[in-house]
Amino acid sequence: MKLTIVEYPDKRLKEKSKSIEKFDKELHKLLDAMYETMVGSNGIGLAAIQVGHAKRALILNIPDEDDEQSIDTLIEMINPIITQTSGVTTYQEGCLSVPSFYEDVERHENITVNYQDRDGNTKIIEADGLLSIAIQHEMDHLEGILFIDKLSYSRRKKFEKEYKRMQKEKKLSKS
Ligand SMILES: CC(=O)Oc1ccc(/C=C/C(=O)NCCc2ccccc2)cc1OC(C)=O
Ligand SMILES: [Co+2]
User: Fold this and answer.
1) Percent of the chain at pLDDT exceeding 70
2) What is the pTM of this model?
3) Could you give the CA distance from residue 95 to residue 20 in angstroms, rounded to a whole number?
4) Is the CB of residue 62 less than 8 Å from the CB of residue 44?
5) For ligand 1, what atom is nearest to the CA of residue 45?
6) In angstroms, rounded to a whole number, what is the distance separating the alpha carbons of residues 156 and 152?
7) CA angle at 16 for the pair 114 and 147, rounded to the nearest 5°
8) Does ligand 1 come within 6 angstroms of the Cβ of 45?
């Protein structure tokens, strides 16, 4: 079932997520609800904290060449750890918790990630391109870090100005 997405500036997004020890039905239900929520909101990545669960779980579903998102390319990562990084890349990121705002963020180009799947099995993945960027973006959420926290001072000021304007517009449209 679709969960509510926690949005900036909600303080819960700054919490550090806790490791997952039990790979039980509860976890599977959360992962399934995260998938419905992410796809229902046109997202390609989502961390559990974004739906109010400060647990080290994230999901990714990167669209393929013809921009199709299919469940068989869904990746579920529990307790992920980046073990190797190389190169640098920049990409204009967005986040379901920071609607309508997009900014360039610098990330590692290639990463190797150790993680567990929904049954607790250990997996290793080497990622580059959009998958690498998405994994790093979602793993930041597990540390309570949003992509807007990584912006330069001037870019952050630009975001805060735009955010205030959008909030004013929302209030006007409601009145
Ligand atoms: C209006 C609005 O908020 O638009 C959106 C913004 C972000 C998103 C989704 C962002 C998302 O999935 N980010 C995952 C992390 C990530 C960031 C950059 C590259 C890879 C992975 C979806 C939006 O909704 C629509 C309809 O496009
Ligand atoms: Co995000």
Assistant:
1) 100
2) 0.96
3) 23
4) yes
5) 14
6) 6
7) 80
8) yes
